[in-house]
Amino acid sequence: MRHTLFLVAAVLAAICAAYEDASLVRSSEALTFDDDIHLEERETGGRLRLQSRGTLADIIDLDRIASVKRVLCKDNKILVRLDDDKPDVTWTKGQILIGGPQWNCSHNIDKPESHTIYAKIGTLLRPKERVVEIHTTEAGPLEVFDNAVIKVHYQQGELIPSRHKRYISNPLRTVLNRVDYNASFTRNIPFNNMGDDEAHKTVNLYKRTGKNEPDADTDSNATYDGKDFLFRCHNCHGYSQISYYMELVIYKVDNKPIIKKYMMEMDVNTKITHEYTITTDQEISLTKTGVLLVNHSTPIFEVPLATFQTFSPIMLTVNASTQANIALKAVTKHATNYKGNVELRGRTIISQSFVEGKPTKNDVTVYNWTVTTTDQSVDANRTFNATFAFYQNMTIKPYISWAQKDIDMKLGPPVQISTRPTINAVSTGDTVKRCNRVHVYVDTNVTVAETDFSVDAFGIHIWNVKVMDSLSRKINVMEAELSYKCHADCHAENFTKNNDVSMNTACGNPSKKLTRNDIEFSSLYQLWGNYVLFSAEEGNATWCGNPGRACGDCRDNVVSDTVNDACADRIVSTELAASVSRLAKFIEAEWPD
Fold it and tell me: Residue span of the signal peptide, if any (predicted)?
């Protein structure tokens, strides 16, 4: 992946535009180009400004010289046959020679199929009348101008999601009216429910009954029938507002092109919304990772970089390609239903700076990330642990094209951004209490390719100079607890609901009233704790087992270590103590406050 120089194409086009069809000798007057383009999208206020200016060098375009009749290329030598009826030429050493495919002449060992010419004149010979023999040397693309300054500033407007224009599939927003919005819709990854027929799709990940491997699709009518497990992301969408700034300054020093300044900043404001469910009716364990949907390169905006009187303009285009990825691992011991939602917002800034004579800057920073949720519901009777991430990889790639000539240059470097929210839902239980905990972890991966200026002009790879190292960052953006709830676990393992068991069976048969002096009194058990309240504790209960013998007032919950001083109502059989104590624990789990 290359960071490539779009200026060269503008220069080459300007050269061709400067010549008249009958021109044989370049004028001594320096050729210049100077463009200042302002564009604004009325709907959102998005703005783009492009400024380019410079002075061209001395270049010969064989396609525009009427005297040229035939051209033959071999190794580093070019033979030019001139027409007998046309004026002679006065080429000199050091001039740059270009020619399109019409001459069927390849001056490129690496790409002989290109049939194009790009070279610098080394020496000139005249072996015959009307024949010019040119011995060439390699020419770098920056040698076609004396100086140049390019500035691009792109500020995306305010994006207001609506039923028909809610974006995540292609998180960039087109900024020019000339772009077909509807066409952009059909190329989006259809995460969200936008009301658009092409985009109204649900992403499902499921395991069919009797199958070993999980599958995935976008069937909005999918049901649980015939499945052992179903994950549905039925309303996952979002968008990113992109601001882009690039500045490039090049001068010719000692007859060599020098990059004086390069700056690039991309500011990405992101919003992500997920609404999802997980359903299973049995014990299951599965893992699934992979790419669900791919959108190949789609134009985000396109503007003329340089315009000419006699040639088509050079176009600056920013493309974006995206793919939807899923990573899911789930383990459950019993039937489980889980549904939830989450909304994330935040900002990622990618910045690069190269100024001659100063240290380079190459960094990624994140700001103001927040997360909210309105629903996290886990219905599980046994252990449940699910971790999933549904996210996009987005590649932004600027490049230029010039239909008039065979020029291929990519304005870069390509920037890859992936913001991944990973949600972990866990349900665990002890004897009487079950707790459900949901966490979200957000990380951002950013990769910026090595910043080169690399040009394929006329099918020839003619320049490759490194400017900045590649940039790769993984940033742990945030971690947050979305939900933590506990309740009485009436479905705990080894616990049987005694729906058909009588009180006598559970607590023992009733017997005579016992006093503290009875032999059987020693077999009774004293209940402890504040979650069991007896009726005697709400009244003036002062009888302690023997008529006329007072003990502590039960209204004050005085519970002594000795049986003789305990409230009489707290002295129960072991069977009743076990049942009431378990009930107290259920109450504490369900209503901790």
Answer: 1-18
Phi-psi region of 589 (alpha: psi -120 to 50; beta: other; left: phi over 0): alpha
Give the CA radius of gyration of the chain: 39
Residue position matching structure tokens 């690399």: 454
- Strand locations in 307-383 (E): 314-332, 336-355, 361-372, 376-380
Tokens at 488, concatenated: 């009485």
For residue 212, the Cα-to-chain-centroid distance in whole angstroms is: 30
Say if residues 189 and 203 touch (Cβ distance below 8 Å).
no
Q: Which residue, 396, 448, 445, 408, is CA-closest to 262?
A: 448
Q: For residue 112, how many other CB atoms are within 10 A of its CB?
A: 11
The whole-angstrom separation of Cα 131 and Cα 79 is: 7
* Residues 17 and 309: beta-carbon distance below 8 Å: yes
Structure-block tokens of residue 250: 């090049």
Whether 554 contacts 566, CB under 8 Å: no
Ordered alpha helix ranges (H), 494-573: 503-507
E strand map for 210-335:
215-217, 227-233, 237-253, 256-280, 284-306, 314-332
Helices first, then strands: H and E counts in the chain: 4, 28
Q: Give per-residue pLDDT as tens, 310-339.
A: 455 666 677 777 788 889 999 998 889 999
In order of 184, 245, 283, 375, 398, the CA distances from 361 in angstroms are 35, 15, 52, 43, 21
Tell me the residue type at 492: A
pTM of the model: 0.60
φ, ψ for residue 104 (rounded to 5)?
50, 45
How far apart CA 239 and CA 381 sit, in angstroms, is 37
- Tell which residue, 105, 140, 133, has the closest CA to residue 119: 140
Q: In 3D, which of 163, 236, 159 has the Cα closest to residue 195? A: 163
Cα torsion at 249, 252, 258, 260 (round to 10°)? -30
pLDDT in tens, 332-385: 988 899 999 999 999 888 888 888 888 888 889 998 999 999 999 998 888 899
Short-list 124, 118, 109, CA closest to 138: 118
Please report the sign of the dihedral spanned by the C-alpha atoms of residue 119, residue 122, residue 125, residue 130: positive
